[in-house]
Amino acid sequence: MSLSKIESALGFLVLLLSVFVFPSCIDTNYTLGDSLVPTSNNLYVETASIDLKIGMKSSADIQSSSYFYAVGSVASEQFGLTTVDLAATVTPSDTGIKFGTDPRLVDAYIFLELDNTDTFTPGQDNITQNLYVYPMARAMDSTMVTCSSVSDKDYIHEPIGKALLTSRDTVIVPLDMEWARKLMSATKAELDSMPLFIKNHYGVYLTTDEPIEGTIGGRLNNFSTANVILKVNSVNKQNLRRDTTITFNIGSIYNGVSTQIFKHSSKALEVGPDNNEEVLYYEGLAGIKPFIDAEVLRNSIEDWADENGIDMDKIIITRATFELPFEFPDDYRTVDNYYPQGLYPAVYSKDSTDNVKRYTLLGSIYDDTYNKGDINRSLLCYRPDVTYYIHSIITKDEIIEEDNIWLIAPFEYVETSSSSMSDSYYNPYMYNSYYNPYSYYGGYGYYGYNSYNNYYNNMYYYQSLYNMANTSSTTYYYVDYMNYAIGQINGNGAKRHPKLNLTYVVLDK
């Protein structure tokens, strides 16, 4: 090594040592400006954990209007009997239906396509259940959105169809021919107007037998398709008889009404917030759920503040979380198969759009910085964030019924939208597809099969890139009223009982 290189290396080493060995000649004064700020204005972030008193209450009037068709019944030791029935309109699959000249009804039946089943007792997947179809006694409308919207007096208790349900994919339910002929009596005006048809031609009510009293088991059947099928024989313009199949929708997604009727005997398990239960239950649909009385919750927070000498008028909640612990069951698969995969606070209040009361998740679930109450299997708890809610109830003048909380599983729905790329020749992406120097034959010179095929391949490639870049999605959260989950959390009397965890600041402490 040359002398000049050795001198350069030594110089760099001396510089490096001076950085680590010799102290800086600049002193940092961390108290600078302290005398200018009154100590009374200092803010201290602190934490607290308050016992959360939780009861159990039925969500009896939960919304149930949907286009997922569920029918069945189950009985369990914990929750007793749960039945799911379906009331729905029957409407033409399309406007302008024509029965033809001299129509004669040949056959009529309901076609059901099974999507999946729910059982909670081993050996119940393939049991047989009697399915009954009754005619509705009244017209249904868009206000019938809750599971209590339809009562026993709203349908005629003489079946117009009956079938045996197993776990097979499709079910055919033969229908009473006289009832089916009433559909064929519809006028042209009724066939062309869905509201008029619904007003004058009532729908159907579907239900199953309950499990034998004293037994445990049963099955819920979830159908993806439900139609009334009429086989009609009529005369065409050539005066020849022909057979025609005419389809009517049960609870059409576009112009019909489909309402599930949930009935639970678990209402007998209801307890107030002052209970000392070690276990609190969760049952989906309209069943029993953990319930928090807002007045009791605010009183607990005020009692904690009094005990710690905190002025509630000077407290700022920066984070509030419900901690809802549970114990892992002996069979770990129970948590995956049956437990709600999330719990989030929901309130029961009147919807301003249609003046109907609904269960609605707290709006803070849309804040992506907050915990949405997803199940935590490693910590064995649910921890939904409720900062906005806690701040609201400690600052409002009066607690009302609509402030009370049910802990309900959230349902996540993602809506995607995209702006498709035009096939216009003038689109720059499309122009590049017309002239591709890397094609097999190259450029404009050849329009044979391979070059033409290459044009379309490139067109779809660029189009897919454009669509991916211009696709957006929006996530919506709803109360889950379609899935029958069952589970439990620790109660007030458990060692690991529910808590309200606070992070807060007190002004002028």
Morphology call: elongated
The average pLDDT score comes to 84
Give a count of the beta strands, DSSP E runs of length 2 or more.
25
The number of helical runs is 9
Cα radius of gyration in angstroms: 33 Å
Proportion of residues in helical segments: 10-25%
Tell me about the largest β-sheet.
11 strands, antiparallel
**Percent in strands:** 35-45%
Distance between the termini: 69 Å
Give a verbal description of the structure:
- Helix 8 (428-434) packs antiparallel against helix 9.
- The chain is of the alpha+beta class and 509 residues long.
- Strand 17 and strand 18 (357-361) form a beta hairpin.
- Mean pLDDT is 84; it is low at 12-24 and 421-462.
- The protein contains nine helices and 25 strands.
- Strands 3, 4, 5, 6, 7, 8, 9, 10, 11, 12 and 13 form an eleven-stranded antiparallel sheet that branches.
Write the layout of secondary structure elements.
Elements: H1 3-21, E1 45-51, E2 55-58, E3 69-76, E4 80-88, E5 90-92, E6 101-118, E7 129-135, E8 161-165, E9 170-174, H2 177-184, H3 188-192, H4 194-200, E10 204-208, E11 217-235, E12 241-250, E13 258-264, E14 279-283, E15 288-292, H5 294-307, E16 315-325, H6 333-337, E17 344-350, E18 357-361, E19 375-376, E20 381-382, H7 387-395, E21 405-408, E22 410-418, H8 428-434, H9 449-469, E23 471-479, E24 486-490, E25 499-506
Antiparallel strand pairs: 1-25, 2-15, 3-4, 3-11, 4-10, 4-13, 5-12, 6-9, 6-11, 7-8, 7-10, 11-12, 14-24, 15-21, 16-20, 16-25, 17-18, 17-21, 19-20, 22-23
Helix pairs in contact: 8-9
